[in-house]
Amino acid sequence: MWALVPIYFFTVNTFTKGGYVAVTFVQSLLALFVLNFSAYFLGTWFFRLTGINIGKYHISRLYKLATGYGVIFITLLFSGMLGLFTDTALTVCLALLACFSAFGAYDYFTNRLTGGVEENSTAQTVMFSSIAFVLTMGFLMALAPPTSRDAIIHHLAVPKLYLRAGGIVPLDFMPFSFRSINLELLYTLALFVKNDIIARVIHFNFYVLSVIATYYFIRGAFSKNAALVGALIFASIPVAFNTATRAYVDFGLVFFGILLLNCARQFNKTGDNAYLILGGIMSGLCASTKINGYLLVALVFVWIVSITQRKKYDLKMFAKAIGIFLLFAFAFDVHLLTKNTVETKNPLYPILSPAFEAGGYDAGGSGGRKLLPIEVRKLLHGQTWLDEALMPWAVSTKVQSRVPYTVDGVLGPIFIIFIPFIVFLKDKRYELFSMLAIAAVYVTVCWGVWGVRLRYFLPLFPIGAFMIAAVIDELFDWRGEARIRANLKNVLLITMLSVTFALSAYHILAYVSIKAPFEFLSGKVNKERYIARHYYQHEMFKFINENITDKNALIYFLDFGQDGYYSDVAYYYDKVFLGERFFSIVKSAKVPSDIRDRLKESGITHLLVNLDMFRQDIDNNYDAAQRRITLKFVEEQLRPLKMIKSDAIYEIR
Question: How many Cβ atoms sit within 10 Å of the Cβ of residue 456?
């Protein structure tokens, strides 16, 4: 029945004014078909070329798919660095992917895996249906236009600038453009066909793949029932659902991370070097998808080293195992390493780079000591050490807090309720506690370096689902695979699971209600009106796009933030939020015209200013002489074009 929902919206929008949505729906499905099956074809080709063989398992198809995506990422990046993001080159690229997808689909459907279709019990059908419902709601959410902040600052803005430049060029004012690249390359294709909604659907696709990978990750260790519970837990966590429906990159890291963790687990189980090759490939893809992927790779690498010692590898065997892993990790991270080397002279930029504003808030301006996130929380939100100690409880049980850690969604209590039970489990203790150690170190480092943003912890959710599945598999009493025993223990477990799922469903539906995608999907509001409802600055960018027609125009965002995606006019902003460049110009200026001249020397023709932030900046950071010359500059050297709320666009005279 759940499949009737998208069919319904397709039918409605075909015969109503919302036809644009129907076109987007078809384009999105076509994009997923082309990308997934072309990646599957390329991955299958790579497996045959390298002789990788892990048997005919369903998860082996996921490894082929992930590896194929790696081939696409690498090809697109080097094409972009050669200046081949042109209409002709990208059209040829899409045509090739379409051809590959035809071969991939043929191979996928003609090479069936061993084993027939399993008959599902009533409980399994309910869990399958629940997962399908969550995924369907997520897909419909993903069909709405992008309005989330990081998408319009980073994940869509970077590909748009690459397309404007005709290739991959250094974006020095965007330090985050050096931190990740993989999914943005796919978003470049979406923007090339002029449909940014497809970018949201692509990210949602990796969420679906992550749910499937979680199921097979757990299924390889526990029963089908436990695997379904784990997959449902992972899919229904509100922060996961929320993030998945945005044009972000997090679920690329999650998907590759699950497969990486499974490689380590299977290597521990079988000792097969094929899992070291695949682990290396997944490591390279993790590292080049998102900066915290390096942390996950480092922790899993330590686990693999531990496994080799546990298996008593001699020096030669150890060197061979580690060499295989690192070689393939380098091969599938080489595109990002090359890009950063060319653009910054540091292959691991921003890691080990003093110029990186990582996790930081520069309270003292340039040259000042950057505060750690824990210090920022204390300074801005009054966070105490007791609050820090209780934060795991807080992020699991609260929706609102003075610390904005729930900005990406709600976590829910599922993990803190069930994970403590793993201390009572006897089976697979080494794997469980190894994963627990990885999660603990990962959380600690993220907590201290990047801050408390729940989506930063998404790669750990499959680990949590794996642990809960272990608890369910151990404690739940099944009468075979078909029926549940009626006893007090089962009633308590079902009650706890039902309550946590009900809470997750409430938060998911509340999020859907706030974003109101059905107004757009039904054709009640068009794309422009939908964006304007959820992103108030869109009206300003609409004015800019319609009225600033000079191809040489360059807008400087001053105390405005970094939301530049919807600007069709070239723009620039400071790496820090408080107008660092402008402040340095003011400090050296003797008369207002000096400020104008310095800005024009940089090619800047317009200023986009948040006046509230600008006034606070002047009052808090400028001395009397600097305030006077700045206000004179605004009065004498700028011509106001438009003001919307506290935002204003000026032309430099």
Answer: 23
Distances (CA, A) of 261 to 217, 323, 382, 414, 623: 8, 18, 37, 21, 55
- How far apart CA 409 and CA 241 sit, in angstroms, is 8
CA pair distance 189, 185, nearest whole angstrom: 7
What is the number of helices (H) and of strands (E) in the chain? 29, 9
Cross-strand partners of 361? 371
Q: How far apart are CA 317 and CA 217, in angstroms?
A: 27
Asked if residues 293 and 498 have their Cβ atoms less than 8 Å apart, the reply is no
- Cβ contact 420:464 at 8 Å: no
Question: What is the crossing angle of helices 373-381 and 429-449, to 10°?
Answer: 60
Q: Give strand ranges (E) for 94-208.
A: none
SS3 call for 571: strand
Q: Where are the beta strands (DSSP E) in 345-498?
A: 361-362, 370-371, 478-479, 483-484
How far is 393 from 281, CA to CA, in rounded Å?
A: 36
CA distance 211 to 231: 6
How far is the CA of 542 from the CAs of 149, 426, 537, 563, 565, in angstroms? 17, 61, 9, 13, 12
Extract the residue ranges of the chain whose pLDDT is less than 70: 1-19, 113-118, 352-371, 379-381, 398-407, 477-487, 575-578
- What tens digit of pLDDT does each residue of 216-248 get? 999 998 888 889 999 999 999 999 999 999 999
Positive or negative torsion for Cα 398, 400, 405, 406: positive
CA 250 to chain centre: 2
Phi-psi bin for 370: left (phi > 0), alpha (psi -120 to 50), beta?
A: beta
Cα within 13 Å of Cα(596), Cβ side: 17
Does the global pTM surpass 0.70?
yes
Residues in the chain, overall count: 653
